[in-house]
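Proteins fold reproducibly. Look at a sample protein:
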Amino acid sequence: MSDPEQRICDEYSALFEKSQQLFTGLRDLPQFGKQWLPYFQKTFEVYTKLWKFQQQHRNVLENKERFGLKRWDIGEIASKIGQLYYHFYLRTSETNYLYEAYIFYDAIRTRGYFKDVLETKNASLMVKKLRFYARFIVVCLLLNKRVIVRELVDDLQKFVDDYIKTYRPTDTQEWQFVLQEITLFLQAENTLQITNRPKNAPAFSYRIKPSTSKLCPYDPINRLKLQEAVLVGNYQQQVKFSELTLDMFRLMQALEREPLPTEENSELKESHSEEDKHKKRANPHKYLLYRPTISQLLICISTAFKY
């Protein structure tokens, strides 16, 4: 191996190791307050650099005699970036981050990054694939992409069956329970049936649309604005999927605005005026708690009051 190629492989390995360490550290961040932001930004910068680096040097990295980068390795990086965008959405309530997560997840599925993991006979890789599909379903649910959700659930059912048949794993009941949860969730969510609806009509959404709401003129002195919301699902046997109960699912969207079109989103990112910042951050921050303890609830309320 020539020196330039060796340096490429070494630099990729160093970037990948650093990204893994930073991503693992996200679990230790406090769920409340704003201390998480610098660490999130640093993690995102490293993953962005890693993603661009593997794109630029794909030929060297994929060569089996040099590094042997696999398709699922690329998929894992893309999945982590999608998770970062999704958690940005959860912590900021900015729906554009949710759509960015969808873009990465959709690319993973469309390009088949996890397509051949079953052939590797590696159970841990198969679990990564199943978790990716479960996360993708949540994102599509929140974006009201019902057709894609149904396709993903069918795919997940098939992959879970393959996983159980091939590996006979100890977490069989856990994955069967995941499938049961999403099936019941979709059944409950589809209780309202709209008749005589045109086939090309947009998906029903609980979110606030620009066409149905008018943004009041920005007034930093006299205007009251909802900035924090604490949503609690506390009933023991609520319909839920991934700790997102049906009522929380509907309420959190009712407190959000629809994602901006790409061109409008770009304009707001480039603008720094107070009025444009106000438009960009129009959604209140939300705390989503499923069956919390009293202490957890009080911490959320006190943190919301503080910030």
